[in-house]
Amino acid sequence: MTTNKNPGIYVHIPFCVRKCNYCAFLSGASDEALRERYVKALCEEIRIRARLMSDHAHGVFDTIFFGGGTPSLLSSDQIARIISELKANFNIASEAEITLESNPATLSMESLRGYRQSGVNRLSMGVQSMNDEILKRLGRIHTAGDVIRDVQNAREAGFDNINLDLMFAVPDSSLETTLIDIEAVTSLEPEHISFYSLQLEEGTAFFKEFERGELKEVPDEIDRAMYHAGTKLLKEKGYEHYEISNFAKRGYESRHNLKYWNMAPYLGLGLGASSFIDNSRVMNVCSLDEYFNLTGKGLAPSAEVHENSEHDNVAEAVFTGLRKVEGIRYEDVLGSYEKFWEYYSDVFEEACEYEREGKLIIDEEGMRLTSDGIDISNSIMALFV
Ligand code: SF4
């Protein structure tokens, strides 16, 4: 896998039909008028950011990622307007990967054709499960039947790069339902699958149930058994495991998400979006009123700006890079084995202990987690922060 350092663009669309029971993302209800107002403000932010960044050379942006929320609540005309505003203001590669996150039951044949024509060439769908009971438990608005229909329609509309998100360790699920879900999802032959564990987040409906004692978390050992059995099955189905939670047919890794794990720069636009650009981490405001107010005055809607220190850059490169199955190369982080372990001499012994336990592989080129190491990835990554 090449380490592409071209910048990417993330566009946040903070609207959903209704809140899922586990969701802590920045998203809420909307009507057509609010969505249109948001698209106009977003186009304004694009112009503001382009003006502010015009003094710096940022190279060619080769990915655009519409995330949410539910970006497929925007019409294809609105998505097309945002893409053309981006192209008018930034240097966008002609073969850029342009991903749209979507949710089944918010797509129609017409909207899919429209998205494809507007330049979207990768469709990501929040499937989560192919079991209608589990979908209901998660508070999703769709059924397994909607997924099957929408994937077929997406193919017909010309999408040849589709990701399906699948969740495991959901309350009331089992190892068996997890593997049945994988069988059902892989039978749709997506090019990419994200397979990740449910996290109980504060402020969600599930968290409240948990506090009332009405929701039992899936025990850690079962969560891990689901992960390893799921990973094995996905590999048997021809998907390469390239990041802790991500699997792809060869050549279909998410170019955009790889930017996060490779410390490539990205510009985040929209409500609450974060950027890593010009060596700074920037986070946008999270209140819609503030977002409209600032963009309306021609001001950047930034809430926080943190300039990365040299240590931030090293620590983040290790932390995010270890998420990749291929791990990190010293060359990309600090230049060489000697320099890397001189910098981290205080944790060298602990890292070697993880290696002896079979959790980490350390060689002359770099370092990577083993399959067992993934189970305690946070503890290993924390060594380098
Ligand atoms: S569709 Fe996604 S972003 Fe929207 S509420 Fe559900 S989990 Fe959250």
UniProtKB/TrEMBL annotation:
UniProt entry keywords in alphabetical sequence: 4Fe-4S, Chaperone, Cytoplasm, Heme, Iron, Iron-sulfur, Metal-binding, S-adenosyl-L-methionine
Domain of life from the UniProt record: Bacteria
GO biological process: porphyrin-containing compound biosynthetic process
GO MF, any single term: 4 iron, 4 sulfur cluster binding
PROSITE patterns in the record: RADICAL_SAM
InterPro entries associated with the record: Aldolase_TIM (IPR013785), Coproporphyrinogen-III_oxidase (IPR034505), Elp3/MiaA/NifB-like_rSAM (IPR006638), HemN_C (IPR010723), HemW-like (IPR004559), rSAM (IPR007197), rSAM_sf (IPR058240)
Location (main, coarse): cytoplasm
Subcellular location field: Cytoplasm
Record bears the keyword Cell cycle: no
Keyword Protein biosynthesis set for record: no
Family under the similarity heading: Belongs to the anaerobic coproporphyrinogen-III oxidase family. HemW subfamily.
PANTHER family: COPROPORPHYRINIGEN III OXIDASE, RADICAL S-ADENOSYL METHIONINE DOMAIN-CONTAINING PROTEIN 1, MITOCHONDRIAL
Name of the protein in question: Heme chaperone HemW
